[in-house]
Design brief:
alpha/beta; Rossmann fold; 11 helices
Length: 308
């Protein structure tokens, strides 16, 4: 599949009416400060609403296949954070606190007073953990998907990540987005992910706007390390939790960082009152697209729907 960046219009402040994918519905939530946030919903089963939180530079489209599968047995919502996809730009600093405030408003509007199961990938991990810390009674379960851990964070790592994002921006501008995608998916996507669903993911992620969004969040990572450490020590609410980790030692995370990341993940799972660690040796950082079935199974485990 040849990957092409979206047209220049995609770099505008929130393009309306983006295709959410087969079986999914696009809706808009207006926050109290007037920003319009694009959400994607599906499913109407009783019980907790499953809320998906993407990583830096990724939109709701990161979850298209997984959300469609989970929606057959639960209500679901994913959304584009400010500065990506169909959501409006945010002129305020994109700190962890600011992002969680936005998430809380989205949850209130979509899930009402119902409990939620939180699913966070990469930087989405600290986001959902901070939400759970602030709103423990709202949370029925949690799935962390190769989530960012404090053990791999430092000013040097933040600078390295920012450099990678700038390189990605240059490649996209030069029409060489394929080179950037190969760093994310060195073995390609799972055959479970259709070409159409994968195209939606790249549609939002392979843009200058997505790279700017990632950089706007990355610059607040170092100042959030103490908060993330506190969340890891705290363990979170006493609810079912699954910590999914990639085990492949090449691709986006080099060998030394993968070892540190997975050791940190084991400690995080141990600190969670009902935490379980699952390491997928055939996946790297982008578990959402390499082993989507494992994410669906983890959500089912947290919902109590899977038989072992």
């Amino acid at each position: 599949m040849t990957v092409q960046p979206r047209p220049d219009s995609s770099d505008m402040s929130g393009s309306p009416h983006l295709d959410p994918g087969v079986g999914l519905t696009e809706e808009v939530v207006t926050l109290t400060d007037g920003r319009r946030i694009r959400t994607v919903t599906a499913g109407d089963a009783p019980g907790p609403c499953v809320v998906f939180e993407a990583g830096m530079g990724a939109s709701a489209a990161a979850w298209t296949h997984i959300q469609r599968e989970v929606a057959t047995r639960a209500r679901t919502v994913s959304y584009d954070r400010s500065n990506i996809g169909g959501s409006a730009d945010d002129r305020s600093p994109r700190s962890l606190e600011r992002i969680v405030d936005d998430l809380a408003e989205v949850v209130d509007r979509v899930a009402g007073n119902e409990q939620v199961v939180l699913v966070g990938h990469s930087w989405g991990g600290p986001i959902v953990r901070f939400f759970a810390h602030l709103n423990p009674d709202r949370v029925a379960g949690m799935v962390l998907v190769d989530a960012t851990a404090s053990a791999i964070l430092s000013p040097a790592v933040a600078a390295l990540n920012a450099g990678s994002m700038r390189l990605g921006s240059l490649l996209i501008r030069a029409g060489q987005g394929d080179r950037f995608t190969r760093t994310l998916l060195p073995d390609g996507a799972s055959p479970q992910i259709t070409e159409a669903d994968l195209a939606l993911f790249w549609r939002d992620s392979l843009t200058q706007r997505a790279m700017r969004m990632a950089l706007s969040e990355e610059r607040h990572v170092t100042s959030s390390i103490a908060l993330i450490r506190m969340l890891e020590r705290d363990g979170g609410p006493d609810v079912p939790g699954v910590v999914l980790q990639g085990g492949r030692q090449r691709g986006l995370l080099e060998r030394r960082m993968r070892t540190r990341q997975n050791a940190a993940a084991a400690a995080i799972a141990d600190a969670m009152p009902q935490g379980t660690l699952v390491v997928l040796e055939d996946a790297g950082h982008l578990i959402t697209h390499e082993r989507p079935d494992a994410v669906v199974d983890a959500v089912d485990d947290v919902l109590g729907l899977r038989r072992h």
